[in-house]
Known about the structure:
Elements: H1 2-17, E1 39-43, E2 49-54, E3 60-67, H2 81-88, H3 98-107, E4 111-116, E5 121-128, H4 132-145, H5 150-167, H6 171-184, H7 196-200, H8 204-214, E6 220-226, H9 231-242, E7 264-269, E8 275-283, H10 292-303, H11 309-317, E9 321-330, E10 335-344, H12 348-362, H13 369-386, H14 390-402, H15 409-418, H16 422-433, E11 439-444, H17 446-453, E12 460-463
Helix pairs in contact: 2-8, 4-9, 10-16, 11-12, 13-15
Amino acid sequence: MRTVVLLLLGSVGAILGQDVDRSKPPETPPLGPFKLPARAEFALPNGLTVVAVRDERFPLVTARLAFGAGSRFDPKTQPGLAEGVAALLTEGTQGRKSRQIAEEAAEIGGSLSGSATPDALVIAGSALSEYTARLLDLMADVARNASFPADEVALYKQNRKQALLAQRSQSSYLASEKTEEIVFGDHPYARQHPTPESIDALQPEALAQFRDRLLRPNNAVLILIGKLPPQGELRKVLEARFGNWPKRDVPPAPTAPLPEPKRTITLVDRPGSVQADVHVGRLGLTRRDPEFFPLLVGNTVLGGGASSRLFNHIREEKGYAYAVYSYNEAHRDAALFSAAMQVRNEVVEDATRSLLAEMKRMAAEPVTADELSATKNYLSGNFVIRLQSQEALAAQIVNLKTMGLANDYLEMYTTRVRSTEPDQILKVARKVIAPDNSAIVVVGDAQKIKPALEKFGAVQVTPAH
Length: 465
């Protein structure tokens, strides 16, 4: 026994005595491509696409019924219509009241809700796997038979106006809203948010018309993930609940020419603000663009986290901002690239100059080998970890289908991240990240910060509504 102890102590001493460079993180072995679990994809005769992914780890089923029916389909005079339809689908049908729907979802150990993005309207549900048929009953009912009861519509309008009031009290919300308006111009992506007037104008008839026009089986994909019945049995269950849902022609997605990017400076006046919210934005890249992955990697180096250049320079070194970041918000047919920060009024000029300088540096100098390696590890590892849950995987498949992405997009994600080279990042940074043709939007007290912004060019002042 004494000999064993001495040997162990000797081994520990040898390990401790090794010359380890603790200034560098340990190397991360390369991750292999992400592999989806076994899946089947088929279509019902009425055009409903079904993606079934088997996950036997838990007795659960996660479902998403996604339609090409997001906010871009809202009439110009009624932004927020798709959002209202999504929220109210589960608040009553011809055969079930709101409370019944909620109680039935709880009885099967799950939930049911609706949401809308610029490109899609999604009904999300979950249940214990033994109740898969009952979950699909509920989803089919709310998709096909929502009645939009007047009292539920009135309650939604009241709550949504209060939520909008809270949102519009945040300078970051106002800055994002104005940036989208400038960058997307007349395109429907510029109108992603409701107004108090459009909420007041919501009526059950308009909600039902939106549903009847766009919520059709040939405009939808049903995603099922979990411990599913055998495929033959699953098809019978689906045919019984969705098979007699008639297909119908659906209108094409509204569109409009996107404006050419150009330098503008817009100051949204918010008297009394002690800090300013600064956004520098322009058209970005969609996920289908061949240069999307170089932009993804480059954006992460610039402002994608606590190791990014913006975080280290503007927050850690200069102390100008608590929050500073950049992002590429990709929709189906267009995208917004933006760098943003919140800074004290007295440092607006210096902080803005530093933000623009870091964006210019991305377009002038290749990223370093250490930056590139760390970013690839971060993006690849984070992607694989996030897809371990059914909810996250379902969300990614919704994106894949509603964004028109190739079926191998998820499997090829880490490979495309890993294959990105510095010259590719430099090339796309010159097109997208360089701020020369970007719109600068600042929300803050015009009286206090306008002179600082005028150092960068002519400033247009607009009131905060």
